[in-house]
Amino acid sequence: MGLALYWGEGAKRGNGGMRLTNSDPKLIRKFIEFLEKFLGIDKNRLKISIQIFGDISPQKSLDYWIRELNLNEKQFYKPMVIKVRGEGTYKYKSEYGTVIIYFNNIKVKKLICTLIENIQ
């Protein structure tokens, strides 16, 4: 399941480390579980970024994701507030923003991408 999640939601291009973005806490928890169980990554080594729109409280969003993901506040970067231009059509946006999981290890990213490429 973890490979499928990364295939759909992960960053596959570039030379940076592993990165996955989504707004569904269940999906994020399942991916973290995959990292722990199948790749042996300690979830305390993950870094998390939150992207929110200006009408969402940064602290409320941060508190929500800390609770939902059972992670330490020190693992989170300061929430990034996206300025909305005009009315827009984001009425179905996430109430708590979008999370980006980072693990700055290019070997892990290459392993995941290689495994995905070999799916037949």
Protein architecture, described:
By secondary structure, this protein is of the alpha+beta class. The protein has helices spanning 2-9, 25-39, 58-69, 106-117, and strands spanning 18-22, 47-53, 80-82, 98-103. Strands 1-4-2-3 form a 4-stranded mixed beta sheet.
CATH topology: 60s Ribosomal Protein L30, Chain: A
Number of helices: 4
Which spans have pLDDT < 50 for at least 5 consecutive residues? Answer: none
CATH architectural arrangement: 2-Layer Sandwich
Number of domains: 1
Q: Quick one: CATH class?
A: Alpha Beta
Short structural description:
The protein has 120 residues and is α+β, with helices and mostly antiparallel strands.
Secondary-structure map with pairings?
Layout lengths: L1 H8 L8 E5 L2 H15 L7 E7 L4 H12 L10 E3 L15 E6 L2 H12 L3
Parallel strand pairs: 2-3
Antiparallel strand pairs: 1-4, 2-4
Helix pairs in contact: 1-2, 1-4
What key phrases describe this protein's structure?
120 residues, alpha+beta, 4 strands, 4-stranded mixed β-sheet, 60s Ribosomal Protein L30, Chain: A
